Amino acid sequence: MNAYVEEGMLLQLLESLAQVASGDDLLAWVRQDFQQALPHGAFLCGFGRIHRAGISFARMYSWNLPAAYLREQQQADGQYVCPIVRRWLDSGDVQLVEAARAAGIDPVWLARFEASGLQNVAAHGMYDFSRHYASYFSFHRIPGPLGERHRFLLRIFCPSLHAALLRILHAIKAESSAARKGRALTARELEVLGWVCEGKTSSEIASILGITQSTVRNQIQSILVKLRVNTRAQAAAKAIKKGLVVPRQPDSIFGNF
User: Taking Cα atoms as reference points, which of 108, 133, 153, 157 lies closest to residue 50?
Assistant: First the structure.
């Protein structure tokens, strides 16, 4: 492949990566598109908080990595710890690790690593501005010897991979926030719920609010779903407990003058 053709391919890959909007999109891009530039057989990425020994991933994506291997790298406190991650945290630069030439790595860990079939790794990541959080990307089972081309590719693509991962995390956060808002009771539902807590029937509530009974029933069904209860009595109890409705005070014994 001549330099002109390769440059065009890399630009196309960067453009397609800019369209990634979900975890599934990211894994599909890595498994399919990126194979053109960096053939590999397994992949791991994540974003999380940096610790002295490793990274606690808030979100992780992988494909074709043995579950046993991932469990071995994760500590009881949730940190993902392995010599390659540690080397990257110490240097901040691309890590190229071939099992046959992995000098200075714990031989016990290296034996487990070889047994997993994940040899030949190119790994890199990006810090956030505070350097308290980072993204991390590792490509495993890369054919042939590792060299400067692999280092170049990770230096070129990891900033865009980092941006894609942050887009995904922001989208997940926004979706979660929207879901929480969707579970919030509307002003009308709170009004209906208040009368439910007073023991009023659908017919009575409809008359009080000047709406149809079917509208009241729909409102009550929505209330039950949002409060995650099955009956009106459960809804009333939960509403009072959560402070959504304040029980009405009984009328004065002297009546209203």
Answer: 133
**In-domain check, residue 254:** no
Domain-embedded: residue 248: no
> What would the pLDDT profile of 16-40 be if each residue is shown by its tens digit?
999 999 999 999 999 999 999 999 9
Is the domain of 159 the same as that of 204?
Answer: no
253 domain residue, yes or no: no
Is pTM beyond 0.85? Reply is no
